[in-house]
Amino acid sequence: MMEQYLLRVPKKVGTELRKKIQDKDIKGVDMVAGADNKHFKFHLGDQEYPVTLNQLPCILETHKTYDDNLFYKSGEIGQIFMVHENTEKQKLYEDVAELPSGITPPTTNIVKRKYSKTKKYPTFPKTDVARVEDSLIRIMGGGVIEDVQEELVDYCDWMVTDAEPQGIVVYDEMDLIVQHPEYLTISKKKDPNEKDGNSAGSVLAERRQAIEDARTPADVLSEEDDDMDDDGKSKPATAASTPTNSGNKSAEDDDFDEDMERMLNEDMDDDDDDDKYNLQEDPQYVAFVRQRQVLQKKLHDLETEILTNQASISSATNFVLKQRFQVKDQTLQQQKAQLQDSLNETNQSIRDLEAKANV
């Protein structure tokens, strides 16, 4: 679809221009652009007129027909060339970026009647608009709305900037990790179940004390009854110091000590298993995996855009438009190469961590 413009000329110029069109003699009719691509010169024969390029408040559609019955759209017009008789009238339109009225009666003074009402609303920040667009793209692509998770971390100086004195706003966690790798460590919390290493003797003493504390008054009275004879008198000391009783008590103590040591060794083995390197719990490995997923998604979208742009290059008939697509293709290819390099580096980092875990 070719770019189309409107040309508005004074009546005297219009009469002479129509005459040339009817005679099919358009020699001497030309328009030359200025250095700023905003001011032009319109040539009609030996005459030269100043021209300004202004924006229309409404988009116009142009249609073509071959039988005055079936019309089809041929283009859209958003700008108008206004030819002036002299430079004084040209100055009236130099500072006008958008005309207040269109070219049809319903669009007379439409900016003041219709469009000025919408200007009361403030413009949305570009960052918020970009964030909402990304969310909509994910939803349209089959994704889900991400849940907001709050996390308290230690304060760092880079969390406050001059542009954001109340604290920075993070939209992409991967970009934050790349800029500030220490973010992976400030949010790491100590396991509440983690205990300092204790010696076997101290742990054994603690468990014995726990058993003593768990004894009930009934257990104490039962032991006292065992120490009394039938007459209510204490048993002779020799009975407690006989080799048989002493041997039995010593054997019971040995069995108790062996059981406690066995239980302690089992717990220490479990602690050793917990101390082993777990790759899935490594924050650096998790960050690399997330980064790989993001890069793969961006690379896939970029390849799709490249294929679409190459199809546009093949189908474009306008030389200027085709050249634009070719420049865009070069830019996309450079972006693809950069993404591929980043993806290769991320994959290498993941392989290094996996090799470390297998050692």
UniProtKB/TrEMBL annotation:
CDD domains: TAF7. It comes from the Eukaryota. Residues 1-167 form the TAFII55 protein conserved region domain. The keyword Transcription applies. Residues 221-230 have a biased composition (Acidic residues). Residues 209-256 are annotated as: Disordered. Belongs to the TAF7 family. This is TAFII55 protein conserved region domain-containing protein. It comes from Saprolegnia diclina (strain VS20).
